[in-house]
Amino acid sequence: MIKVGIVGGTGYTGVELLRLLVQHPDVSLEVITSRAEAGVDVAQIFPSLRGRLELAFSEPSTAALAACDVVFFATPHGVAMQQATALLAAGVKVIDLGADFRLKDAHVFQTWYGMEHSAPALLKEAVYGLPEINRKQIINARLVGMPGCYPTAIQLGYAPLLAEEGQGRPALIDTSALIADAKSGVSGAGRKAEVSILLAETADNFKAYGVDGHRHHPEIVQGLQAISGEKNIGLTFVPHLVPMIRGIHATLYARILPSARHHDFQGLFEKFYADEPFVDVMPPGIHPETRFVRGSNMVRLAVRRPGGGDMLVVLVVEDNLVKGASGQAVQCMNLMCGLPEHAGLTHIAVLP
Amino acid sequence: MIKVGIVGGTGYTGVELLRLLVQHPDVSLEVITSRAEAGVDVAQIFPSLRGRLELAFSEPSTAALAACDVVFFATPHGVAMQQATALLAAGVKVIDLGADFRLKDAHVFQTWYGMEHSAPALLKEAVYGLPEINRKQIINARLVGMPGCYPTAIQLGYAPLLAEEGQGRPALIDTSALIADAKSGVSGAGRKAEVSILLAETADNFKAYGVDGHRHHPEIVQGLQAISGEKNIGLTFVPHLVPMIRGIHATLYARILPSARHHDFQGLFEKFYADEPFVDVMPPGIHPETRFVRGSNMVRLAVRRPGGGDMLVVLVVEDNLVKGASGQAVQCMNLMCGLPEHAGLTHIAVLP
Amino acid sequence: MIKVGIVGGTGYTGVELLRLLVQHPDVSLEVITSRAEAGVDVAQIFPSLRGRLELAFSEPSTAALAACDVVFFATPHGVAMQQATALLAAGVKVIDLGADFRLKDAHVFQTWYGMEHSAPALLKEAVYGLPEINRKQIINARLVGMPGCYPTAIQLGYAPLLAEEGQGRPALIDTSALIADAKSGVSGAGRKAEVSILLAETADNFKAYGVDGHRHHPEIVQGLQAISGEKNIGLTFVPHLVPMIRGIHATLYARILPSARHHDFQGLFEKFYADEPFVDVMPPGIHPETRFVRGSNMVRLAVRRPGGGDMLVVLVVEDNLVKGASGQAVQCMNLMCGLPEHAGLTHIAVLP
Amino acid sequence: MIKVGIVGGTGYTGVELLRLLVQHPDVSLEVITSRAEAGVDVAQIFPSLRGRLELAFSEPSTAALAACDVVFFATPHGVAMQQATALLAAGVKVIDLGADFRLKDAHVFQTWYGMEHSAPALLKEAVYGLPEINRKQIINARLVGMPGCYPTAIQLGYAPLLAEEGQGRPALIDTSALIADAKSGVSGAGRKAEVSILLAETADNFKAYGVDGHRHHPEIVQGLQAISGEKNIGLTFVPHLVPMIRGIHATLYARILPSARHHDFQGLFEKFYADEPFVDVMPPGIHPETRFVRGSNMVRLAVRRPGGGDMLVVLVVEDNLVKGASGQAVQCMNLMCGLPEHAGLTHIAVLP
User: Fold this and answer.
1) How far is A47 from chain B (nearest CA, A)?
2) Are residues D217 and D264 both part of a single domain?
3) pTM, 2 dp
4) CB neighbours of D177 closer than 8 A, spacing ≥ 6?
């Protein structure tokens, strides 16, 4: 059994980690810390876990965490980078669901997150936890920075198109004007006491936000550049808030290059993801819906070419709390610990 | 492996049965019939099952069903009673999620469901599939009629109170004026093309319905009478429609008899359900919420006595599609087939 | 034109007052105060008002308010009682949407609201702003305490039944065991930064709350006692939270006395409310829905007697922010200022 | 008073027309037809109108309609074109909310709507009812074809950009690759008994639809061409379904031409719409939300340029049933009848 610790388990990625790990056949949940809720039974905060988890939140303690095989950080940015060095030194594998180890450049981190990076030396070692792109590195990693929810959907949607060039084949799309119009359920904003995400403010409503700049933009660009072989990427990213709890739908636009107009894009995607357990390339005629993956670790996507023209449209859905956060983190843990990649992640989507 | 067939799998209880059975460790899904969708892949109708179920709907066929160990009917009323006799004769165990085998009296069935019962001889044999009340009979049953979604929540909420009298102890509550104010998500109305259950008609809205009479009323009364030792039951049952997909919340009222004013009701409930794997009596101070059981087979309930007065309030939540339908049906199958009662039913609620 | 001031206009009753008053033909909005938002354009906080209201929030100032004809307090409890005396002395009519002037007994106020009442001398003068019950007193009032949202719906639902006795006729119902099972949209909890009312906590969910005691309980009992001629009232009140923005649905239960079994309850209600502009007694066969009054000042209700038995069920719907708060406050203002009672309150419900 | 008739008032645009017209100061509602509901009180189908409209649905009758000044068709496509000729001959002004008179080319109509156009001679006379673009023609029109809901938002969002060229000034954007990523509430799909728009299918869910081709595409292109001076328009239009009742949010993308990189786009929009009563160009820093216009005839929009780059993003919100349908139809009626353009259309959005 893998001994697991969680730092900061009172948010949505925390409770989702708990749901997945409690049902994971190879995991023993040893410690979960929360300064604010120390001493309180986890099941009191999250009664969905009553009868399934006999554990109380404890004060953050490096000793208790250092006794684990794997420690997840389900914390706001700035926490994991404070504690990672010590845990790694103690032989613990560290998986950060926050933003501390996503960006390779400490200056970019500081620009977007408003704080200096306290462990820049680890940035080089940290592996970006997107298994479909970085599986080999994740298997050998001690420290993994999990992608954000939007970046997961958007990178997986563009990857087959960009990887051609990354692998030395002819370019397929104009990467100077990519458009990612993304929509997220409100849980993506976290379990925070803020007026703007009240039901009475967000239900029966739809809006864009962060149009002038969103922290996931540099992360997505960094990822797309890596996939494309460091090609220049011009990306417009507009996130929107959907009156639903879970789910991300990314609608991706890319202009097909004249030389690629006869390319078989459906075939390209199917081949690229043929062996992936958690990516489903849907056949023509079906539109992915977020409920098709609700509560599951699947990404489902479709490739369309409206009117047979030169604009490619990729539709991608994921559950932002599973494949967009905690499920993908467990997927990385499985890889890092030599478990079957799908262990504990075979939940079928809850529909309706 | 238990060989399972499903008749009529295109509704919500059907797809929920599929979700549970595909993940059940001891089940092999052999056949699923639908006259309307014969020949169509199940995963085309329910893409949440893509990659997990390679089965197409087939024409209803007694032969194929007769080769199964268990057949579930996830059909409107009137279907199971046509086919049950033949299947039972072939040695198949039959579990009806519809209404055909809920009511013991064929005349009452005819009154409320508007059709003559075609298999009245089976009504006596049929066991009412509420394991917490009828476990022993279910274990030995060939034919089980599953309770309705409201009746499950309401009977489990009143059972500890009524069973006292049923077991010869002093009565605790005035059974002449029980009030069950129940609220259901819209999936309870089924997957039917009806204007009244459109999102644009039911979202951001709340209403009662069926106040003048609802088919679940005679079923609940029959059940409460059985639990209480055939006591006279006066029940007012008012169902309401909640703008959510899944979940039932029953708010039950019962006037405490003067002789029972010092009874420990919390203790009564805890003791009554002490060994039940799927009923959680919550401690004082917590209100059950439907999301605490979303997607799981749990019932959670709380007993309250506002102002310390003589009105007892029992709050009960269940997922109408799981414990209120398909999950409870799998629970009965497990009992009937000698499997662990919780096999395939350990899903933790999806929260948020 | 009536010169109007509003104290504390940044909550939901505040913005609803603004929506109604800006469209009111006889009102000039002079001042709106908010300590937190002083200097900020109202339309910046509530862009729905852009182009319709050129006013900024100002620091609370008695002078500015004293120049108004009417001042509304859309503030948490404890604010209006601090300022009412001075405003009344300045000849201003005061309408409090908070709880300061609802309860007649300062001790009861202190018990439920956790603070001493600072203006107990005004409690006797203050009129309870339920026009259908207290119209004459409101017309002559200087100070009106507006009913809570639940109390409005519940009192209007029980009033025709209780008023019989209050007016010296034979009693109709057993008032010792009234049950008010009420359901509210989330806006009823206010525009506050609290985790428990986030969309991700309350959408696709249903729960009861405050079962052990809710501040509206003593207010409702006080009102029902007044209507019934100070009869003893035993009331069980259970509020629930509905995943919708606006709307209250109260399901009221009352046991009919044996002597009243042949009473024409539909006729009783229709007669009682025959001349009321904002109460609609619906005919048999229709269930009121909250959307039938969304955005309007109407209450719609229906009387039912399930199975022809002795339990009467009254279904009442209102928009909690209109008839349950700001609309009813404008209705009182109209009465106090000699305007037509329906002035500025003729909005038809927004459906769908 | 303008005498008004409505053909087919049982859908959502019908009930919204009723809401607006009943409150319109200059309108007398004379007749409303529905073959299916003939003889039934309108307020029985739509209880939100109880007490405000004493009118029953009647059988379709040209005589009754011919006695009106204006007749609205709130019908599926194919109805208005059958009756328009006779009504026009009788001197009635005709406003079609359906699709019969939107497209100028009868062949394009047939391609997208699957039926031959039965009144092609009227297509030339019919005016496209978008007042901000065609006000003068509408004022003089006898026959107006109302824009679809998506086309209204999308054309108003692109119009200031395209009109420059249409008016002979230098082009600002690359019109060969416009992208309109649009999101609509479910009421846009109509009041139809279809499984795909049930609450249980669409709540807590998000999806694209019609990516391979949507009937509004040719209409939008036709409109954008007209505005731009018949320039070639390459438009990718992807509609999505939002789990809300009302509202459309269009996110429009356009690549700025190198020559226009220093253009003041905020100023351009503000100037273009400076005198428009129903279009609000929001200042920098605010994102339009659909609730900012819920129940009102306003369009609100914002222009953004993420990262200061060359991709322009226009965010547009409207209430699909008001400015996207019935409100805009009343706006056209006002223009055609010499009433103030805003008569009966001054409702402030219902927020929250």
Assistant:
1) 6
2) yes
3) 0.98
4) A177, A255, A311, D234, D236, D255
Chain A residues in contact with D185 (beta carbon < 8 A) = 204, 206
Q: Is B48 inside any structural domain?
A: yes
Q: By CA distance, what is D256's nearest residue in A?
A: A177
Q: Which residues of D touch C275 (CB under 8 A)?
A: none
Position D144 in a domain = no
Of the residues B15, B199, B205, the best mutation for testing chain D's interface (the one with the most D CB atoms within 10 Å of its CB) is: B199
Structure tokens at B301: 């309930």
Binary contact (D304, A212; C-beta < 8 A): yes
Give pLDDT, residue A61: 87
In chain B, residues with a C-beta closer than 8 Å to the C-beta of C203 are 244
**What is the per-residue pLDDT for D231?**
82
| pLDDT band (50, 70, 90) for residue A162 | very high
pLDDT at C53 over 90: yes
Catalytic residues of A: 149
**Alpha carbon distances (Å) from C143 to B349, C66, C126, C152:** 50, 14, 5, 18
Percent of chain A topping pLDDT 90: 96
> C19 Cβ partners below 8 Å, 6+ apart?
C48, C49, C326, D348, D349, D350, D351
Q: In terms of domains, do C60 and C182 share one?
A: no
Residues A190 and A101 in one domain: no
Domain's final residue, options D109, D125, D141: D125
Predicted confidence band at C164 (pLDDT cuts at 50, 70, 90)? Answer: confident
Statement to judge: residues D169 and D316 lie in one domain? yes
Alpha carbon of residue A281 to chain centroid:
18
CATH number at residue D292: 3.30.360.10
The C-alpha R_g of chain B, in whole angstroms, comes to 20
CATH code where residue A35 lies: 3.40.50.720
| Closest residue of chain D to C295, computed from CA coordinates | D350
The torsion defined by the Cα of B214, B219, B221 and B223, in degrees rounded to 10, comes to: -160
**Are the beta carbons of C351 and D291 separated by less than 8 Å?**
no
- Say if the Cβ atoms of B48 and A293 lie within 8 Å: yes
Q: How far is CA C86 from CA A124, C28, D14, in A?
A: 68, 22, 51
Domain boundary residue, one of D92, D108, D125: D125
Residues B107, B244 within the same domain: no
Task: Examine the domain organization and report whether B178 and B106 are in the same domain.
Answer: no
Å from C249 to nearest chain B CA?
7
10 Å CB burial of residue C234 (0-12, 13-18, 19+) is middle
Please name the member of B177, B247, B306 whose beta carbon is closest to the beta carbon of C212.
B306
Range of the domain at A229: 150-320
Residue C165 scores a pLDDT above 90: no
Q: What is the pLDDT of residues B279-302, one digit of tens each?
A: 999 999 999 999 999 999 999 999
ipTM: 0.97
Residue C332 CB neighbours (<10 A):
29
Give the pLDDT confidence of B314-338 residue by residue, as tens digits: 999 999 999 999 999 999 999 999 9
Q: Which of B195, B221, B236, B289 to mutate to test the interface with C (most CBs of C within 10 A)?
A: B236
- Best residue in D108, D154, D181, D351 to probe A by mutation, most A CBs within 10 Å? D181
Residues of C with Cβ-Cβ distance to B314 under 8 angstroms: none
> Is B109 among the domain residues?
yes
| C144 belongs to a structural domain | no
To the nearest whole Å, the CA of B186 is away from the closest chain D CA by: 6
Res C231: pLDDT? 82
Cβ of D243 and B199 within 8 Å?
yes
Count of domains for chain A:
2
* A77/A194 same-domain check: no
Q: Measure B95 CA to nearest chain C CA, in Å.
A: 30
Query: In Å, what is the CA distance from C225 to each residue of C159, C172, C230?
Result: 10, 15, 4
- Catalytic: which of B68, B149, B332, B337? B149
Q: Which of D48, D321, D348 sits opposite C23 (nearest CB)?
A: D348
Q: Do D206 and D310 reside in the same domain of the chain?
A: yes
E strands, C123-216, are: 127-128, 143-145, 173-185, 207-208
- Return the active site residues of D: 149
